[in-house]
Amino acid sequence: MKFDDFPVDALMQITTRPPLVFLRGEGSWLWDHTGKRYLDFVQGWAVNCLGHCPEVIARVLADQSRRLITPSPAFYNEPSIRLAQRLVASSSFQRVFPANSGAEANEGAIKLARRWGTKNRGGAFEIITFEDSFHGRTLATMSASGKPQFRPLFEPKVPGFPKAKLNDLASVEALITDKTVGVMLEPIQGEAGVIPATDEFLRALRELTRERGMLLIVDEVQTGVGRTAKLWGHEHAGVAPDIMTLGKGLGGGVPLAALVATEAVSCFEPGDQGGTYNGNPLMAAVGVAVLDTVSAPGFLAGVGDAGRLLSEGLFALSARLGLGGLTGRGLLLALDLRRDIGSAVVDDALERGLLLNSPRPHLLRFMPALNVSAEEIGKMLEILERSLLQAMDS
Ligand SMILES: *Cc1c(COP(=O)(O)O)cnc(C)c1O
Q1: CATH of domain 55-294
Q2: Which residue among 159, 162, 184, 258 is buried most deeply as judged by most CB within 10 Å?
């Protein structure tokens, strides 16, 4: 089939897409409508943590779809009970509200914090967020985001999200008023270009929020579920937040997210929160399988090993070609190209059969499957070098 044979015009144009239609995926590989094969270091934006179409997810989807797809969120179902139990058992939190997207989980976190502020802090509702942060595309999560491109859009925004500077505690303190209920941040800012909150900053924020009676909310939609080689990104800093949100990797490719909170903060009352598909057995069962896989002995150590191999390769490449440094942890890494050739590299790599992401003009971001092989990392580095040389040449 040719690209022109696909009637793509019926889709709303929400982004510029290359003239490709992907038909099949397996592990770290994707195939387009012409049969061309691509090595995928984007993986649905850090979503397919076990790669494309892993057998464990295919099997769970098939089995669960024959047993029970949804009884309505007004009733308990077995997979959502297991999902919540798995999340609680492997974290410092006690309560879970399953959701369908990262934005929805964050929207829930904002509502929960405001509810808590109403009950415990005399109506405090402001949540301090950070410049360049990304929390989703609903109106409230766009308002919470510090992404500069969002600023002029969809005015008026939802009020109550003053922006501080990441890794600058004084900038947070300066924004605290009697209306402040919490601080929300990504342990590593993903869309901004893989910019980590330092462990010291996370610990200082935990101390500050505790002292001032405020909530610490971590948006782990991108960093959670093993992406940084620990199960949760905030574990590196050794802090226990009040609220955590998950998405992306939690479903391993299916729409699944979660709002996770401590017992003390979980103050929703009947009617405050809900949703038709929230906690549906089909997606919840996949989440359980993903968590079982990622928590299996040796899996996270393997993510660490793959992350080291990838960063060593990128370091060597950077040294050879005179590029800049690396940021990130585990298998969420970004390479500074020191020149605005990101999109040229992405385009050239696509031609050569490699999918990469450039979150900023001078950066490349790497977010392969967590079970990416050493051979695939080697192959990626080979193609990347050719694309870099090509882009630097022109
Ligand atoms: C992707 C992302 C979101 C939004 O998740 P969606 O599933 O696209 O709504 C929120 N926060 C962070 C940190 C993300 O990376």
Answers
A1: 3.40.640.10
A2: 258
